[in-house]
Amino acid sequence: MTTAVIVDAVRTPSGKGKPGGQLSGVHPAALLSHVLSALVARTDIDPGVVDDVIGGCVGQAGEQALNIARSAVLGAGYPEHVPATTVDRQCGSSQQAAHFAAQGVIARAYDVAIACGVESMSRVPMGTSPMGRDAAGPLVAARYPEGLVNQGISAELLAARWKLDRETLDEYSARSHARAASTAAAGGFDAEIVAVEVDGVARGVDETVRPSTTAEGLAGLKASFRDPELGARFPEIDWRITPGNSSPLTDGASAVLIMSEERAAALGLRPRARFHTFAVTGSDPMLMLDGVIPATRRALDRSGLSIGDIDAYEVNEAFAPVPLLWQREFGADPERLNPRGGAIALGHPLGASGTRLLTTLLNHLEATGGRYGLQTMCEGAGMSNATIIERL
Asked: Where is each Thiolase C-terminal domain found (predicted)?
């Protein structure tokens, strides 16, 4: 069977996803073009050998509409014959793009592919794409007559049902910032971040990391999703989710160069890791965020590995309850969980997060000599991807 390998992986720094954020002045297609250009420059490949570019983006409206991956390919100066497509599996969009790209290589449909993702939450605010319309339709409403809830309420429900108190959530969140700040100070992100020039200034540092964050400081923040009507519907909720224990709105892009082991050898490129196992699953759209559990279980079952065999786990920190309940379910080592900080600190540019996690995971395995890495993330409407890679 053909082996799909990772040759390189890059990301932009994070930018606050609001006007005035460090990347808010960059068109999202140009942001994605930047990481596509960086892959070519770093590996010295001819972009004409790329069989397909698969990009993730959630807010496919406005400046992110009309197949932004194709716009980015053209903007990066790739030959016109290089195609591209944009996929939406919500927060897991670019992780799914990596699955599709690697699976295409394994199936011998591709020799070389790029998985990537972008989200400019400052320029295309979250929730823009439905245009104020009911995107789910009457049949979904009939199946769930009490009504589905947003992800913030899902996070509240999980925190309550898993008995994760506010102090635990805030302590975890402060740790995320501390780990990210420590990694940045030691130069741990230097190999993965490609600086973006904005108004003549190179932006190469994650803007969302707050080194001074403490659990005590986070304890003073007010709950984000308090709603008396939903409080009556779900009396177990006591409003623990705040801006401090949630991922911030973020701008960013990331990209991963994937090819067959044979093509890498022919091009004189050193593979850095191989794709070991893929899994994707659906889950209860009400709880929504706990899909990381069945997705991880499916990936481990398929891989023949145990959680103890995995050297690092990247569990997307959409909200602090997600990695904490995942850790509890699998009895996972907290030192291996998001060891360089997660989305609470590094940001969650929705469509870019999947390949961002993959980029950070790969660099951590290389820095520590780890062999296996697992990443998983919760996704809107109750879904989750899980991926296991093996460092080479």
From this structure: 270-391
